[in-house]
Design goal:
Helices cover 67% and strands 3% of the residues. The chain contains 10 helices and 2 strands, in the order H-H-H-E-E-H-H-H-H-H-H-H. It comes from Martelella mangrovi.
């Protein structure tokens, strides 16, 4: 893997981790972003990776660079529809069911419409080394699902997931946190992600849909097993 490929892979993940900071207000509209050096330390990547992620935010009109002053948030991310909040374990069932339908169809379309660059990006993401205790697992998990939706070439799928970021990240953070000591969880999730990408690469629409739906259902059932009442 070349240095440029590594930079692209990491910057795509960092970009997905920066979005909720803007959406949640941690990086407020009209506020100045941290320095590249501070962000490199925060996201544990090099400054060239940070620059690539910021470049994507600028291209989407979310931030603006001001000579001598740094980068500033110029537009907030606010979904037009407010989805229900997650306040109990029971709320995760409807979310998982909804995701099965949306993301299964997104994976099916991705198998039909994905570009080679998008497929390469998905492979780089699923092949990224990570440990079970890595605090960034939930963010990388979310980034994978968003990239599959983006490969569908239908922006409604990607925007739906971005609008559900808060709910999905809560679910994913809980799942990863409670699975730290389950040795097979990380391996199984990685295998399932990779299987979805292989089906997309083979342009097998039915298999991509089936595998994505199975993955979401498996993770939800695995979380429920022995973790009832976690949210009170």
């Amino acid at each position: 893997m070349t240095d440029s490929e590594t930079t692209y892979k990491l910057s795509d993940t960092v970009y997905e981790e920066m979005l909720p900071l803007i959406q949640g207000g941690a990086w407020a509209t009209n506020g100045r972003l941290p320095s590249e050096q501070d962000m490199a330390a925060q996201f544990r990547v090099s400054r060239p990776v940070i620059r690539e992620a910021l470049k994507r935010l600028r291209s989407e009109g979310l931030i603006q660079s001001r000579r001598g002053s740094g980068s500033f948030v110029v537009r907030e991310i606010a979904p037009e529809t407010e989805y229900p909040s997650i306040s109990s374990i029971a709320d995760l069932g409807p979310l998982a069911s909804f995701r099965e339908g949306v993301e299964g169809e997104a994976a099916s379309l991705a198998a039909e419409r994905r570009t080679q660059d998008q497929l390469d990006s998905l492979y780089r993401l699923v092949d990224m080394p990570r440990a079970a205790a890595d605090e960034k697992n939930a963010g990388r998990d979310f980034a994978f699902h968003v990239q599959v939706a983006e490969a569908s070439a239908n922006p409604f799928y990607r925007n739906t997931l971005l609008s559900l970021r808060r709910q999905m990240m809560l679910s994913m953070n809980l799942t990863w946190s409670l699975s730290l000591f389950e040795a097979d969880f990380l391996d199984t999730v990685e295998d399932q992600h990779r299987s979805v990408v292989v089906a997309i690469g083979n342009q097998n629409k039915d298999e991509a849909c089936r595998l994505m739906r199975h993955h979401i259902r498996w993770v939800h059932n695995r979380f429920l097993h022995g973790h009832q009442g976690v949210l009170g």
